[in-house]
Structures are given as structure tokens and as C-alpha cells.
Design brief:
four-stranded antiparallel sheet; 10 strands; globular; 242 residues; alpha/beta; 2 domains; Rossmann fold
């Protein structure tokens, strides 16, 4: 289980994350929902030790996350981290070896995953020559290449066409069924509503609502997640409506 307890992070005098707590369990998908700037990416970076929180703690199976535990985590950052001059194969070999995989295992896993997304033919193309959507697919593949126990995805559907979105949803559901812990952020209500078992709604670094999707919808008279977001946060941005 992933436990985030009383997490607070400030930048200068700006409170980016304000006393946030939640748990994410095996075989469940937890969604962080909020506008840009709500604190979603900051929470992820604190979980992964990319930045250090001011207070609070993050535990994985009741242990502080260290380098050994980080090897069990897959991460898809919102801004992307692919090396543009590398081919898809080179990129995956590089990242796979960072996670202590051997080249044969990397290639076998890569063939399996590129087949799921219908992009086997791009194996020897450089990242800079791929479309935004295909780069996003590769970024996701990199994040799960080493079969992580915990998967953290920051806006995973960004840049994907409808067919690719459905492919990614299917893979996420397969990972859920295999017992993975999945946490993802989004401003897309439909994706969160379809996939998540539990959610937290964030606004300006604060947690406005948290719980099982079923209980939250019951609390708000079975309104859509879009309607619930509007009711607890206020006027909704165009990017959230899209």
C-alpha cells in the first residue's frame, strides 16, 4: 500500500500542497483530480523523492521510499522525459537497464507492449520523429517496462487520440487486475469516472473531497463527476470540460 500522510510542500511562500493524505491499495486505481496548478504533480514528485516535502511522509508498505523501493515504481511524468535522439528500442534498453533488466528481457517486454499499442513498426524510429501521441505511448511503455508494483501516471492520456485512449484504458485495467497499485492524475472527468475506484479532488493544494467514487457519487445524488467537480470547486475551466 502507498500511504501519503499530511504532505505539505511550499515554494517560497506559495503553498503548493497543503496537508494532503490518502492511501492507494493493490488492485485499485486512485485518481487525483484537479485543475492545472492544483498540486497533483507536486504530490507525485514528493512521492518519488524528486523534491523534498516540508512536512508529512510517504510510505510504501510501511517503509520510507528509498532507492530500492523506487526500482519497484513506474512513473510517467506530465512533461515527458524521452531522449529525442534515441530510437524507441534504444530508449527502452537504456531505461530497462537502469531498472536492472537484461537486454533480452527488455526486447521481449517491448515487443509485447508495442503490440498492444500497434506501434511495433516504430521500434527503430527516433523519438523526435514520432507524433506527440506516439511519444506518449512510448513514455507509458517505458514506465511499465520493468513490471513495477506501483505505477504513478501524471496526465497519462495527454495527446492521445480516441483509439489510443481506449488502448491505454485496457492496459490500465489489465494492470489493475494483476494487482498493481495505480495512481494517476487528470483533469478529464470521463477518464477518472470510468477507471478509478477512489478519487481525491484538489483545489489550490487542498483536498476538497476524497473517498470511493461510489460513495462520493452517492453523496452528491449520483451526479456525474463533472457535476460534482463543479459543485465542490466552482466554475470549471475549458480544459476540464474538453
Amino acid at each position: 500500500m502507498l500511504k501519503v500522510e499530511n504532505l505539505t510542500k511550499t515554494f517560497d511562500k506559495n503553498v503548493a500542497v497543503n496537508n494532503i493524505s490518502f492511501n492507494a491499495s493493490k488492485g485499485k486505481i486512485f485518481g487525483l483530480l484537479g485543475r492545472n496548478g492544483a498540486g497533483k504533480s507536486t504530490i507525485f514528485r514528493c512521492i518519488l523523492n524528486i523534491i523534498k516535502q516540508d512536512s508529512g511522509k510517504v510510505l510504501y508498505n510501511d517503509k520510507i521510499i528509498d532507492e530500492k523501493i523506487l526500482d519497484k515504481i513506474g512513473y510517467l511524468p506530465e512533461e515527458g522525459s524521452l531522449i529525442s535522439s534515441y530510437t524507441v528500442l534504444e530508449q527502452c534498453i537504456y531505461y530497462g537497464m537502469l531498472k536492472n533488466m537484461d537486454e533480452e528481457s527488455i526486447k521481449k517486454r517491448l515487443f509485447e507492449l508495442t503490440s498492444k499499442f500497434d506501434i511495433i513498426e516504430y521500434m527503430n524510429m527516433k523519438q523526435k520523429d514520432l507524433s506527440k501521441g506516439n511519444r506518449q505511448k512510448i513514455q507509458f511503455i517505458v514506465s511499465i517496462l520493468h513490471d513495477p508494483e506501483l505505477l504513478i501516471l501524471d496526465e497519462p492520456f495527454s495527446g492521445l487520440d480516441p483509439i489510443s485512449v481506449e488502448q491505454l484504458k485496457q492496459v490500465l485495467l489489465e494492470l489493475k487486475e494483476s494487482g498493481k497499485i495505480i495512481v494517476f492524475s487528470s483533469h478529464r472527468m470521463d477518464h477518472v469516472e470510468e477507471l478509478c475506484d477512489e478519487i481525491a479532488i484538489l483545489e489550490k493544494g487542498k483536498m476538497i473531497e476524497k473517498g470511493s467514487l461510489k460513495d462520493i457519487k452517492k453523496k452528491y445524488n449520483n451526479q456525474t463527476l463533472n457535476q460534482i467537480f463543479i459543485s465542490v470547486v466552482g466554475d470549471i475551466e475549458k480544459s476540464i470540460q474538453s
